[in-house]
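Q: Sequence in, structure out?
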Amino acid sequence: MSFAMFMTIGAASAGTVVTNAEAVPSYSQYQQAVTTSNQLKSQLAGVSTELQNKILELNDLTSNQIPAAQTAANTAQDTAQQAKDQATAAQERLNAAKADKTDLEKKIAQTGESYDDAKEAVAQLARDSFHGSNTSQVMDVVTNSKTTQQFVDSMQANVAVTRTEGQAADSAATTLNTSMNRKQRLESIEQEIATLKTQADQQSATAQKAVSEAQAKQAALQKLRDEGTTQRASLESQKSELTTAAAKQAADIVTIKSQIDSYNQQVAAAAAQASASSGGAQQVSSSSSSSSGSSSSSSASSGSSGSSSSSSSSSSSSSSSAASSGASGMSYSVPGSCGSTATYCYGHSTGRTSVGSGAYPTKQCTLWAYLRRTQLGLPVGSYMGNGGAWASTARSLGYLVNNTPHVGAIMVVAPGQRVTTWTANAAYGHVAIVERVNTDGTILISEGGTGFASFPTTEIVSSPSRFQYIQY
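A: Exactly. Output:
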C-alpha cells in the first residue's frame, strides 16, 4: 500500500501510473523513494510532461521494479533448487528400497521365504566363536550365557548384530521387527516402496512447479530490463530538450543507474559463460547489482582525462600508502548508509555541498565517481579536485584511505600512472569505482572519461595494490 502511495505521489502531477514492483518495501525504503521522486520532480521543473514521465518511469524501473523482480527471481531460483534436491533424495530412497527388494527376492529364490536371516547370522557368530580362545568370555561376560542356545537367543535380540544380515531390508526390517522372516520383510519393503513412490512423485511435481515459477520470475525480470533498455534509448534521444543543468543532471543520474544495471548484467553473463567453459564458478564480492563471477569487459581507450573544474586544490598525490593496507577498519557494506545529500557521514565531513555533482565536467571520471558513490550510499565530496588529488583531499576530510581495494571504494590513479593498456593523464590523474574484487586478485572497475567509448565503461585491473583507495 505504501509503495502504491509513493507511485501516486511520484507520478500524479505527470498523469502517469507506473506498475508496482512485486516486493513491498519497508517504510524507510518508501520514504527514500518518495524523497527521490520529489527531488527528481523538483529538478525537472519546466520540463515537458512527456519527458518528465519518461525520466520518472525509468527511475522507478531501475530503482524499484527491477531490484524487486531480481529478489523475487533469486528467491524462486533458490526454492527450485531446494525442490530439485528433495526430489533427487526421494528418488534415491525409492531406488534403494527397490534394490533391497531385488536382493531379498534373490535370497527367497535360493533358500525360501521362511528363512530367518537374523537368527542364522547370530548362530554363525556363535559357531565362529567356539573356534576361538575367547568363547567362554563372549558367552559368559557379554551375554551371561552358559549354552549355545542361550547365546543365540540372547544375541538375536541385539539390534547391532541382527543388522549383519538385515541390510537387504535396511529401513523396512528395522522399522517393524528385526526378527521378521523373509516373507514379512518382503511385504514390508513393498509397502515402503509404495510410500516412497508417492513421496517421489510429489517431490518431482513440486520441483517441476518450482522450476517453472523460477523461469517465469526470470522472464519477468528480463522483460523489465528490456523495457528499461528501450526507455533509456528513448530518453537519450530526447535529452537535448532539457535546458536546465538540474534537469540534465537528473536525467544523467537516472540514465546512469539504468546503464549500471545493464552493464552489470553483461558482466554476469560473461562470468557465467567463463564459468561454464572452465567447469566451475568463481566466487567474488559483488556490487549492489546481482551479478556474480569475474569478467573482462570493455577495454579503456588511452588518453582518458580525469580533469575537474573543482575549486579545490588540484595538486597531485603520489600512490604511496598513507595507511595500513589491511581492511580491518572497513565496516560498511554496499549500498552504504549515507544519504544522497549527506554532508557528514561515517564520523567525518563528506565534502559535499549544495552544488552536488555540478563541479565536475560532463562524462569525466570525477563526475562518474561522484554519481556512483552517491548511488551506493557512500560518502563523496563536491570539490575533491582533479582525479589524482582525490586521495589527499579525502584524507584531509577524514576518510579512510589505503591500498586495499574494496567494493564501492574510489580507486585513485596518480598523474601519469599506468592503469592497464593506458596511462592516466599526466596533469589530472584518474579516479574509478571498484565494482568487484575477483578471487584471482584482479578488480573490476567502472569509470568515466572522455577518452572512453562509453560513459561509464568497465575494465579489469591487475595488481590493484598499486593504487590508493578511498573507503569511507
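Residues 207 and 321 are 53 Å apart (CA to CA).
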